[in-house]
Design a protein that fits this description.
This protein is mainly beta. It contains three helices and 20 strands.
Length: 269
Amino acid sequence: MSNKVDTQVQFALNYVKENKYAYGPAYSSKNLVWNVDKIEENDSGITRIYINYKVSEESQNYGSEYIDIDQENNILSRRQIKILKDPKPIVLMVLTFISIVIAAVSIPIMIFDPFSGDKLYVGGRTLWLRSEEPKTLDYILYEAADTKGDMYFWEIMPDDMDSNNLALVEITISNQKSNTVNLNIDYESSELHTEDAKYKPLNIIQRAEAKTNDDFSKTNTIENFIPMWGKVVLNRGEQIRGYIVFEVKKNSDYKQFRWKTADTIIVNY
C-alpha cells in the first residue's frame, strides 16, 4: 500500500473506534477488535476501506462495515454491511417463543365495549381490531420470561441502522362472533403503509438477540412488551393484545395499518 492509503486506513480505524454509536447500544460501550478486510481505490481519489469488528480476536462472530474517505482524509460515508449479533441460544429462544404464546393467551372481553367511538378500533367480518399509532424507535429492548419463569432481556435492531428505524405497533384483536378463529401471525399477517411504501412485519423471534445485564441501559426497556408472532387460537369472547414490529425508512409518515390473517381490517391513522 502507498503512504497515502496507509494514512487513510489509520484515519478510518481511528474514526470507527471513536464513533461506536453505529454498533448499537449493546456494543457501543464494549472494547472491540477491528481488522481491515479489503481496500478499494478509484480514479477520483476516494478509497473504500472494509473493516470487520468483533468482541475478541478468538470470536468467530463479527460485524462488518465500510468507510469512504477522500485524499484529504474526509469521511464521506459509512455503511454497516453486517451487524454484529450475539449467537442465538436456540433452546432458550424456543422456550421464549412458547412463553410468548402463553403470555398472549386470550383475555375475556369486557361486557361493555372499551373502545366505543374510537377511530382506531375497526371491525371486520369476524374480528375487531384496535391499533395504536406506530411508535418510531432506534431499537427495541424488552424483558421476557421463559416457561420456567426466568427473565431475560432481548434486543431488536434494524438491519440498516443508518437508513432505517423500527416502527412498534400495539394491537388488540377481539373475537366477538366466531366460535374459534385461528390466527397465523407471520410475514403476511399484516402490513404497515407509509406515504411511500408498504412494510411487512419482522419475525420478532428470529430477530431478537439475548443480552446480559451488562450489555445495555435498562432505562430503554419497553415495559409489558408482548411480541406477537406464531399461531394463536382465539375463541369467541376472547382477545389478545401485543406488539408487531416493522423496519421502516427513517422519517416515515404512517398512513395505515392493514390486518390480513383470518380477516381483513384496515386502520387509517
